[in-house]
């Protein structure tokens, strides 16, 4: 049996991060679907879940390895960008508690200022424009 599977998978692409992501997305949709009462929305969720799983399997069993590899590279690039974005948002949220973030009125540079110092003059580190804000 094992040999049969190995022979079947020979020359096929196999699992990658993009396929894992597709399957994960399908699982999330399946879980969400359990909480939905509207039949039409359930049907859409079911259809998308099915499409995701079929697409994942088509990719895993594909013999066009170069193309699948390129797809995964594209996915990883977007995923990396999203991860950066999420990390920046999170860091921002943490800083919000102790700092104000102002934008320079001249060059739009973000400037971080500690909270609770009253009226202060801020000098932009990039273009040296001075502006007054309450912190
Ligand atoms: Zn500036």
Give an overview of the whole structure:
By secondary structure, the chain is α+β, with helices and mostly antiparallel strands. The protein folds into two domains: 2-96, no CATH class; 99-134. The chain contains four helices and four strands. Strands 1-2 form a two-stranded antiparallel ribbon. It has a two-stranded antiparallel ribbon with strand order 3-4. The longest helix has 32 residues, at 65-96. It is elongated. The mean pLDDT is 94. Bound molecules: zinc ion (ZN). Zinc ion is lined by residues 104, 106-107, 109, 124, 126-127, 129. This is Zn-finger containing protein. It comes from Butyribacter intestini. Keywords: Membrane, Transmembrane, Transmembrane helix. The chain crosses the membrane at residues 21-38, 44-62.
């Amino acid at each position: 049996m094992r040999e049969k599977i190995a022979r079947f998978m020979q020359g096929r692409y196999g699992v990658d991060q993009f396929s894992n992501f597709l399957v994960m997305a399908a699982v999330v949709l399946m879980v969400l679907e359990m909480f939905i009462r509207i039949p039409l929305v359930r049907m859409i969720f079911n259809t998308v879940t099915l499409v995701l799983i079929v697409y994942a399997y088509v990719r895993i069993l594909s013999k066009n390895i170069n193309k699948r590899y390129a797809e995964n590279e594209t996915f990883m690039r977007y995923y990396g960008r999203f991860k950066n974005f999420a990390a920046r948002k999170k860091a921002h949220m943490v800083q919000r508690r102790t700092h104000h973030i102002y934008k320079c009125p001249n060059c739009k540079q973000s400037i971080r200022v500690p909270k609770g110092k009253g009226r202060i003059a801020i000098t932009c580190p990039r273009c040296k424009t001075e502006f007054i804000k309450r912190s």
